[in-house]
Write a structure and sequence with these properties.
The structure holds two protein chains of two kinds. Chain A is an all-alpha fold. Chain A has two helices and no strands. Chain A is 86% helix and 0% strand. Classes of the chains: A mainly alpha, B mainly alpha.
Chain lengths: 56, 198
């Protein structure tokens, strides 16, 4: 195996690692938002919609 | 599930499922609105109202999350034409969200990732977020984006490559700027010393 080939493998490996790190970052951001408390206005809205549906 | 099952689906069950999915819906809307918290939450509320209005016709295929994301995405892009829900990068919110990672380097990387995301073409960004961060399958993401599964795979691939390239450029710029700044500081200090005669 030539140095060049090894280098390519290393590059591929590094690229894979960076892609994984990137995915981890995106998941962290997404779940960071998802872990925020849901505003009560959203639950109130659903309750209101459910109430209207019951009346109908 | 048959049509009769759907018709008999109680509103309370439907509501409970919506409540359960709210955190993920909020996160997806936040990405769509590029960090604009208010616009994203307005989009969530409109999505909930639209979903509720479609309650009777909703045909669950086991993927309510994808169904909600379709509604949110359609609302976002139709409203975008009228300049609603159009978010801008929100550094204040980014700082709050980024507190999930306590290491300073981690915070900077997440912030860089968030900024870099804003530079991606929207179709690539949506595909990447849905699959990588949102955990949707390629098929579900294709359903949300209204395209073929192969197209989603290709968009995710291109998005990853583009994002890494943007991050590389950013880090390259930072590295290049640092010595130049130090050299300039040194020159200014030398000039000051000469002027002071020390």
């Amino acid at each position: 195996m030539t140095d060049k080939a090894t280098g390519t493998q290393e590059e591929q490996g590094e690229r894979l690692l960076r892609q994984r790190a990137l995915s981890d970052n995106l998941r962290t951001i997404f779940h960071g938002i998802a872990e925020e408390p849901v505003p009560s206005t959203m639950i109130d809205l659903l309750n209101e919609l459910e109430g209207k549906g019951d009346k109908r | 599930m048959t049509a009769a099952d759907v018709d008999s689906r109680p509103a309370s069950t439907f509501k409970a499922e919506l409540v359960q999915l709210l955190p993920h819906l909020r996160a997806f809307c936040r990405f769509l609105c590029q960090g604009d918290v208010q616009s994203a939450d307005d989009l969530v509320q409109e999505t909930l109202m639209r979903a509720w209005a479609s309650h009777d016709t909703y045909k669950p295929s086991g993927a309510m999350r994808a169904w909600l994301f379709v509604i949110a995405r359609n609302l976002y892009y139709s409203a975008k034409r009228r300049q609603r829900f159009v978010g801008a990068y929100d550094p204040e919110h980014a700082e709050r969200t980024l507190s999930v990672d306590s290491s300073q380097n981690g915070v900077l990387e997440l912030d860089d990732t968030r900024r870099a995301l804003a530079q991606l073409p929207t179709d690539q960004r949506d595909a990447l977020i849905l699959v990588t961060a949102g955990g949707l399958s390629y098929d579900e993401a294709a359903q949300v984006c209204g395209c073929a599964t192969g197209t989603i795979k290709s968009r995710v691939n291109r998005a990853r490559t583009a994002l890494l390239s943007i991050l590389d450029r950013r880090s390259g710029l930072s590295r290049a700027d640092a010595p130049a700044d130090r050299a300039l500081d040194s020159l200014v200090a030398d000039a000051q010393r000469l002027a002071d005669g020390t």
